[in-house]
Design brief:
By secondary structure, the chain is of the alpha/beta class. The chain is built from 13 helices and 16 strands. The protein has 3 domains: 138 residues, NAD(P)-binding Rossmann-like Domain (Rossmann fold, 3-Layer(aba) Sandwich); 181 residues, Rossmann fold, CATH 3.40.50.720; 81 residues, Alpha-Beta Plaits (2-Layer Sandwich). It is elongated.
Length: 410
């Protein structure tokens, strides 16, 4: 198969925020060599100036690809979020610009689960406070407020891939597991669903949060919810910074309603290592504060680098959008000896008919076609019975009313 669109050596790829080297290896193994690697996030102004040159961009959680940045990215073909979340990208605008977004929804599941498990043990033993006092020369040798996990109740809010893993690990340590989710979920092991969030909060010795960032989860755990938690319990948040009202948590720690907390994500986070981390939780020795590192293990980052880069490569080489977060999913296996065209268009009646008529009038047979649509756009991949590329076919595809983007792959 010979490439008809931009040759691979001319495809420009930008990887930001220290994306793992496994991503670079994947791109190079697939024939892509024009890769720029920057180990940190770019400011909004820098992004506006830089992104306009690139066809593919890979980011983690700090880079903000909003509408203004996406409008500046005239050459952008696809975005890779080398993490679980995609809220740092304006997904709606990306789709309007015919740019699919890929992520790694399960790549760091185990890393987050293990961090939470370790925090559970440390909190129940009062280790954060004892450690802080020891660093200052004190010696708090006491069993007061120090407990085993065995026989205690863990409340898991958000029973997805991370929540279920934590539930299984906790059960292996002898804990009772309650979970709450807005969707009906089958329990793993002996976990028990709670009828309401309030009931889960009232019964749990430890509450751990694993929900996405949505309008529904914003300030989900506020003053009222924390008051409903069992006195002397602990709160862990390794999900999204907007889920917990930090002032409410600080008040509960000050009054000793909660014995401790572990927080990995915050409403406002420093943009660099040199910026100061500001939070009222800094005042409490019994709080574990970690800098958004739930999924930051070498194993997780390597897996994520490999997974997301492979998705970008499949889209670039074959037009496959399987598991894209903002795009119709199309997966048409390649056919030998055929030409492949991609067409992304507004979901208007008659567009696909116009595409088929175009090939028909040029006496070209469509040997494979896969169309998927959502409420806004349609995406079709076509394999044509022809070995001779005609540039005017691609130009005519681009001129069909409603077209957002058309490409000839091979």
């Amino acid at each position: 198969m010979s490439p008809l669109s931009l040759p691979k050596e001319r495809v420009k790829i930008l990887l930001l925020e220290g994306v793992h080297q496994s991503a670079i290896e994947q791109f190079k193994n697939a024939g892509y060599s024009n890769i720029d690697y920057i180990p940190h996030a770019l400011s909004h102004k820098e992004l506006l100036q830089t992104i306009r040159e690139y066809h593919f961009v890979g980011i983690r959680s700090r880079s903000q690809l909003n509408k203004e940045v996406l409008e500046a990215a005239k050459k952008l073909v696809a975005i890779g979020c080398f993490c679980i979340g995609t809220n740092q990208v304006d997904l709606h605008q990306a789709k309007k610009f015919a740019v699919p977004v890929f992520n790694a929804p399960y790549g760091n599941t185990r890393s987050v689960a293990e961090l939470v498990l370790g925090e559970m043990i440390m909190l129940m033993r009062g280790i954060p406070e004892k450690s802080a006092i020891a660093h200052r020369g004190g010696w708090l040798k006491s069993a007061k407020d120090s407990y085993e996990l065995r026989g205690k109740t863990l409340g898991v809010v958000g029973y997805g891939h991370i929540g279920t893993q934590i539930g299984i690990l906790a059960e292996n340590l002898g804990m009772h597991v309650l979970y709450y989710d807005i969707e009906s979920k089958l329990p793993l092991g002996n976990a028990t669903p709670a009828k309401t969030l309030k009931k889960l909060l009232q019964q749990s010795d430890i509450v751990t949060l694993h929900v996405p960032q949505t309008a529904q989860t914003k300030n989900m755990i506020g003053f009222d919810e924390i008051k409903n938690m069992k006195k002397g319990s602990h709160l862990i948040n390794a999900s999204r910074g907007t889920v917990v009202v930090i002032d409410a948590l600080a008040e509960a720690l000050k009054t000793k309603h909660l014995l401790g907390a572990a927080i990995d994500v915050f409403p406002i986070e420093p943009t660099s290592k040199d910026a100061e981390f500001v939070s009222p939780l800094r005042d409490f020795d019994n709080v574990i504060l970690s800098p958004h590192i739930g999924g930051s293990t070498l194993e997780a980052q390597e897996n994520i680098g490999r997974e997301v880069s492979q998705k970008l490569i499949k889209y670039s080489d074959l037009g496959i959008t399987a598991l894209a977060v903002n795009f119709p999913e199309v997966n048409l296996p390649p056919l030998a000896g055929r030409q492949r065209y991609l067409h992304i268009h507004k979901n208007h009646p008659g567009v696909v008919n116009s595409i088929n008529e175009l090939f028909s009038k040029n006496n070209l047979n469509i040997s494979g076609q896969y169309l998927q649509t959502d409420e806004e756009i349609g995406y079709v991949v076509l394999d044509i019975d022809s070995r001779e590329y005609d540039a005017k076919i691609l130009q005519e595809l681009k001129e069909i009313p409603g077209t957002l983007r058309a490409r000839a792959l091979y």
